[in-house]
Amino acid sequence: xxxxAIVRKLESILDLPTLPLVVDKxxxxxxxxxxxxxxxxxxxxxxxxxMARVLKVVNSPLYGxxxxxxxxxxxxxxxxxxxxxxxxxxxxxxxxxxxxxDKLFDRxxxxxxxxxxxxxxxxxxxxxxxxxxxxxxADVLHLCGLLHDIGKLVLxxxxxxxxxxxxxxxxxxxxxxxxxxxxxVGMDHAEIGGWLAARWKIPADLAQVVRYHHDPAAAPxxxxxxxMLCHCSNYICNLENLGSGGDAAAPSxxxxxxxxxxxxxxxxxxxxxxxxxxxxxxxxxxxxx
Length: 289
Fold this sequence. Notes:
By secondary structure, this protein is an all-alpha fold. It contains 17 helices and no strands.
């Protein structure tokens, strides 16, 4: 299929998953300069399931401090409105696409890969932030990892046969999955994921990272560092089989991203050890899958 035909098919999908309305309400409220912790908390509290998920995550080892957080207002005041919004969005993404598995696509392995990619991006950032102009928080980096392969779930559900052909082709010929997707579908999961992120009105910088996580050199300059962090973390997680995204072979790697971030190849083993250790703190996220 040509790209225009694929986009038309995507735009015609009537049951395309959407993020919960509460996520939109929180995002809109944050834009208001007069918004405060109480207002943001009240919006989330109107969705009890969302409230429970957010409190569970903010009190998990991945984010939790020494003292437990028992109310959303405290969570917002302590962590910040954007952080709580990103956590709300993260927990929503898990439930949005359901839990069904496919013989050739391990859904739990996929989510574990995404979680590890987010943790890895945060670890890499900590090691090289002196070389990055913009400051990023852990919740943003975790969300980048969680979202970066979201296009694969669109392919699984709506381009199922062609996507399975891509997985088999990549396995048989040792191709990177993105290359196989181009051959069987006509667009790869990064392009489709970028489209979905924009459709969900996810912040433009995160949507661009999803779109360019395999090709950070082509990303707009203002998000290139973030795309490079995601790119390097994704590569390491694929290389070391931290979770599984259906890739038979590690995706292509832009060494220029590694160099520009100021990292050495000897850093990989240390980063892998840290991801493995930190991922143990993320079991609360896997519980949502």
